[in-house]
Amino acid sequence: MKLFSKEQIYEGDKITIERQKISSTDLMERAGNQIFNWINLRMQGAQVPIHIFCGIGNNGGDGMVLARHLILGGYNVKTYIVNYSEKRSKDFLINYDRVKNITKTWPEFVHNQDDFPEINQDHIIVDAIFGIGLNRPVADWVKNLFIHLRKSKAFTLSIDIPSGLQTDAMPEDDNSVVLASYTLSFASPKLVFFLPQTAKYTINWEVLDIGLDAEFLSSTNTAFNLIGKYEAIPIYIPREKYSHKGQFGHSLIIGGSYGKIGAVTLASRGALSSGAGLVSVFVPKCGYQIIQSSFPEAMVITDVNEYLISNIEFDLKPTVVAFGVGVGTNENTVKAFETFLKVNKSPLVIDADGINILSSNTKLLELLPKNTVLTPHPKELERLIGSWVNDFNKLEKAKEFSNKYNAILVLKGANTITVFEDKFYINATGNPGLSTAGTGDVLTGIITGLISQGYNPLSAAVFGVYLHGKSADIAVEDYGYQSLIASHIIEYLGAAYMDLFKQPEQIQEKPKEEA
């Protein structure tokens, strides 16, 4: 799913109006009517008090359209105008007059704290105060209104974006944004719904189709894309009936040190379970028996050193190499990694201490083959690209790094973001159960196994992150967040693959009773 910038959405509105020969007021009517349909489907006329807070711009105009439809639908509605400016948009004024024409209870103006209405926990709030055009901090009294809405603990529905939240900047403080229970977003979700610092402002979101020009939506390229099931399906490469293991490549996992051989085991199992034809591991001698007994499907090559990687030598020609899981940062290991990079011809996936070694020895970055995949967690990323001011700055620095080194960065988190050159791929799967030791090692293995069987590195990273998260989503149904462990991700990987082609369950109509 494309994530359109606010500039692209404005352009889409303009093109839709021109091509469909409608007015901006007509487009606003569509938006408000879609919100009404969403609410009406769920409330079915229930007389719960609904408090609609409208700004004086186009987001407020959407709220006015909604208020009119709810009033005509017989709902218990109170409408308020948050009067933060003397300016009014044309479409807001048109719809303000339309509300006044259908009810004797006109919208009430809110100028300051004395005008705040009483709201109970069992009421509903609709937030239509600010839209995506907001580019400045809100006034203090408006901030106090947001606090007042929060304190009510009422279900809060935001229109398009939680008020106070900008699409391309961080809020000045936590109280300057409405805390939405649900956000109904037009055309596409907003990037800020997925960033660690701003995702908290809407618990759930849904996209409403307001009929923007289809050609514009399909032909417009976006920097950010959300990867869910329907974006993952086209990436999948099916297998021929008469294929054999030699066609799916040979993954080599290099890693481990004394006490950290488990990381290599997890990565190796992840590679084979994602579809690699063959998996070999290169570990210190202390890892030989562990790998052979815990993962008999793998072939094992050992370093000359008992406890750490010191000299990376092997006879095979791997399709792809993963380096770093459990490897440590010993000086001998660093030297061995540098020597390996100078002669390596295979695609690379680098994780954990492999990234830490690169961060401490930046000259090695120049030795990375094009399209190397790096999978840092937040602290590893900070060591690699430096600290950042906020999430927008983090993404910009990640993009600069990717362009400089022709590398693919997988920024692990609640919504893992894969960065390559000027494109960002935001993952929609996964859950808090992944916040446990070893899940990153499994992800490294999955991406490695996908490259092994023919996926290009970017597709392997994007698809691998999706499968990893989906496996966790399926597994958590059996284990819960707290009891989910890294091995479960591997065990449910097959189910994640199968889910790609699972059809939605058909809703069966209840048989009609005979008269």
Q: How would you describe this structure to a colleague?
A:
There is one protein chain. This protein has 515 residues and is an alpha/beta fold. The protein has two domains: 2-221, YjeF N-terminal domain (Rossmann fold, 3-Layer(aba) Sandwich), CATH 3.40.50.10260; 233-499, 3-Layer(aba) Sandwich (UDP-N-acetylmuramoyl-L-alanine:D-glutamate ligase). 39% of the residues lie in helices and 16% in strands. The protein is built from 17 helices and 18 strands. The protein has helices at 6-20, 24-43, 58-72, 90-100, 140-152, 214-219, 229-232, 261-274, 288-294, 331-343, 353-360, 378-385, 391-405, 439-452, 457-483, 486-491, 493-499, and strands at 2-3, 50-54, 77-82, 108-110, 124-128, 155-159, 180-186, 202-208, 224-227, 250-254, 278-283, 299-302, 320-323, 348-350, 373-374, 408-411, 417-420, 423-427. A hairpin with a 2-residue loop joins strand 17 (417-420) and strand 18. Helix 3 (58-72) runs parallel beside helix 4 (90-100), helix 8 (261-274) crosses helix 14 (439-452) and helix 14 runs antiparallel to helix 15 (457-483). The longest helix has 27 residues, at 457-483. It starts with a strand and ends in a 16-residue tail after the last helix. The relative contact order is 0.09.
Query: What is the terminal separation in angstroms?
Result: 48 Å
Describe the global form: elongated
Helix segment count?
A: 17
CATH-defined architecture of the largest domain: 3-Layer(aba) Sandwich
Largest sheet, in brief, is: 11 strands, mixed
- Tell me the β content: 15-25%
